[in-house]
Design a protein that fits this description.
184 residues; alpha+beta; Gamma-B Crystallin, domain 1; 2 domains; six-stranded antiparallel sheet; five-stranded antiparallel sheet; 2 helices; 11 strands; globular; disordered N terminus
Length: 184
């Protein structure tokens, strides 16, 4: 009789454990599905995990040392990319042109319908939108600073070039790009 009771107890424990493991497996699968759905419109992962988002740009010190571009913070929807990155449909790259020796053109990719990137790129004279055809391209605003201080936001042409700093005949002063913002 004792053996039967022990067998029944072990069976109950095994059933409870299996039930708990099944519930945990379902919860993990649901979490992974939710995470995949949430990040479907997000840029590629940097591989760094954190429970608290600081919005600092990953590897910013290394990028500054190697490429001389100061990336400060953002929401991860505008990323520095190689200028040879292929276009996707009617969207190409946001191209920032500078007279800083060795930089020339710096390229960024907008992921999603909104995005924010705080940065410092000196001697900027032109920003080219990412649209490759008429009616394509993100709505982009740029914030620059000059010797006179921070300037009002500049609307960047979605499919063309927008002169800033010395590239803008109305101002013709050296400018530092401080922010790129994509809005719907």
């Amino acid at each position: 009789m004792r053996a039967l009771i022990r067998f029944a107890m072990y069976g109950a424990v095994a059933a409870a454990t299996a039930s708990t493991l099944s519930a945990a497996t379902i919860a993990i699968a649901q979490t992974k599905h939710h995470d995949a759905a949430v990040t479907a419109d997000a840029p590629p992962s940097t591989g760094e995990g954190s429970l608290v988002e600081t919005y600092t740009y990953p590897n910013a010190d290394q990028i500054l040392a190697e490429k001389r571009v100061k990336l400060i913070s953002g929401d991860g929807h505008i990323l520095l990319v190689d200028c040879s990155t292929p276009a996707e449909g009617s969207l190409g790259l946001i191209k920032v042109r500078t007279t800083t020796s060795g930089l020339g053109v710096i390229c960024f990719k907008a992921y999603g319908t909104t995005g924010l990137l705080n940065l410092e790129v000196p001697a900027v004279y032109e920003i080219h939108g990412d649209g490759l055809t008429a009616g394509a391209g993100h709505n982009i605003t740029a914030i620059i600073t000059t010797a006179e201080g921070q300037q009002p936001p500049i609307a960047v042409s979605p499919t063309g070039s927008t002169g800033v700093g010395i590239g803008d005949p109305d101002s013709n002063v050296e400018a530092t790009l401080l922010q790129l913002k994509v809005t719907p």
